[in-house]
Specification:
Radius of gyration: 18 Å
Distance between the termini: 52 Å
Helix content: 25-40%
Largest sheet: 7 strands, mixed
CATH architecture of the domain at 20-151 and 176-203 and 252-260: 3-Layer(aba) Sandwich
Number of strands: 9
CATH topology of the domain at 20-151 and 176-203 and 252-260: Rossmann fold
CATH class of the domain at 20-151 and 176-203 and 252-260: Alpha Beta
Strand content: 15-25%
Length: about 260
Amino acid sequence: MTGSSPVNPHYTLPNEWDFADERLALLGAAYDPDSIALARRLGVGAGWRCLEAGAGGGSFARWLCGVALPGGRVLAVDADPRHLTDLPERGGEVAQIDLVTDELPTGAFDFVHTRFVLLHIAQRDIVLERLVRALAPGGVLLLEEGDGLGVLHEMPGAFGEVWRAFARATETAGADQAWARNLPAHLETLGLLDVHAEAQIPMFRGASPMARMWNLTWAQTSETLVAQGVAREVIAAAQSESRDEQRWFYAPPTVRAWARAPVAP
């Protein structure tokens, strides 16, 4: 991990790491298919005004550009938008916005989406309120977040040991590995309608894009993991396990919650 200060001090996995672009691309390859399938189910398409909050590597924002434009709008925001420079060529907009301290356009979007962002931000409730305010009447909010949901202590081998240390480290930095399971209640409290939610436990083979993504995550956070008491040999063993095509793993469950903003009478 680089020794520079995080561009976004509120986020536990900053984008300025040397291999962050590769890690973010792998994250997109692993999770975009399910995100896209659900967005299609929700009707996202031509002419929709879309906000991708905490856009990261930008893969989902690129997909939005392909389906909502021309005729719609795609705004991708991130505190560190270095991986989003190609979006204007696709008709999208990019803004450097810290979701904790900066305001978003109010009532401006038919679709607001974020993935694996809020659980890493200690001030997540403030951000969630901002995302809700960004919805136009009848607009759809889709949140995708990781959550331990009872499987945290079941992960076997060095991979499991390192993941548990990683979870502890992120919580020390302000993450909440148990927040997402309450998302439906949060959305109802904020006045949204037609609230739905589901949880999925991703299973993946060693050497797959998701395995490579976790491998890079262990590399990015190695010094933090050591500070949590994990031996470097255990980290190396976890990375070796993740490269073994004969092994299968499961990742923390993904909680997906979505709802609509009310339409004024």
